[in-house]
Amino acid sequence: MHERSLTASPNWYCSRCSDVNSSGLLGVGAKNIIYLIDVSASSCRVVGELVGHKDLVSGFSFCQHAGQSHICVSSSTDGSVRYWDSDNKVLIKEHAAHQNSIAALHWSPVDKNLVVSGDEKGIVVCHWHHTGDTASFFPEPRTIFCLSCSPHTWSSVAVGYKDGMIVLIDVSKKGEVMHRLRGHDDEIHSLAWSSVANEDALSRPEDGEAFSGVSAGDEGGCYLASGSKDQTVRIWSTAKGKSVMTLKLPYVKKRGSAVDPGVKERLWLHVHWPKGRPTQLVSSCFSGELVMWDLTRTGKQRWTLFGTSSEGQNHSRIIFNTSSVRLQDNRELLISTSMDREIKCWDLSSLDCCWTLPTLGGFVYALTFSPVGAGCLALGVGDNMIRVWNTLTSQNQYDTRSFWQGIKSKVTALAWHPKKEGSLSFGTDDGKVGIYDVFSNKPPQISSSYHRKTVYTLAWGPPVPPMSFGAAGGKLSHSLYSCAGEGIILQHDPSKLSGEASDIDKLIRDTNNIKHKLSPHTDLSWKPDGKVVAIGNEDGCIDVYQAPSLKLLCSIQQHHKIINTLRWHHDHSSPPELHCLLASGSSNATVYIHDLRSIIEDPSENPVVLTEPYRRLCGHTGKITGMAWSPHHDARLVTASYDGTAQVWDVQQEATVSNYRGHVGYLLCVDWSPVDPDVIWTGGKDFTVQEWRVSKQAFTKPPKGKKMVDLKEKMKANSKQKRKNKKTLGAGGSTPVEVNGEPDTGGQKAVTGQEVTGEDEEEDEVSSTSSPIPPPAPYETQKKSFTAMKSKDKPDLNLLKKKKPRSMLPLSTSMDHRPKEELLQDCITLASVKHSNAPPAGCVPGQGEHIHLGLFSDRPALYRMFETEEEGHVEAGHYDSVVYLRLWSGDVEGALQLATEKGELNDHLLSIAPMAGFEAWSRTVEAFVKQLCLQEQYLKAASHLLSVNKLYEAVDLLRSHKLYREAIALVKARLPADEPVLRELYTSWAAVLEKDGHFSAAAKCYLAAGSSFDAAKVVARKNDVSSLRTAATMARLSGEVALAQSLALRCAKDLAAAQDWVGAQEVLSSQDSLLGHRLHLCVAELLAVMLADSRVVCQSCVSSHPWASPGEHHVSIQDRVRDAWEQQFCVSQTSEGLYSAGALLQELKSVESPTPTASVPLRQVQLYSSLHLTRAVLSWLLDDDGQLIRELWQAVAWFRDTGHFCVSAELCRLLFPDGDVSVWSRKHPKTLVHTEEEAKAAANSLQAFVLYHLLYQRWWSKTTQIQNRFFHPAPSSSPGESMRDKVVNGGAPESEDSVCPATRGCDKLDFNASLLLSEPHAASQATQRSIREIQERLAAMVLQHSRAQGGQHDGEADAPSQTSTTREPSDSQGPAGDGKRPEDQETLMSLSSKMSEQQKQLSALPNTVKMYPHPDVVECCLVLLHFSKSSLSLSESLQQEAKDLLHKYGTNPSVLKASRQFLA
Question: Of 311, 278, 292, nearest to 250 (Cα)?
Answer without folding.
Answer: 292
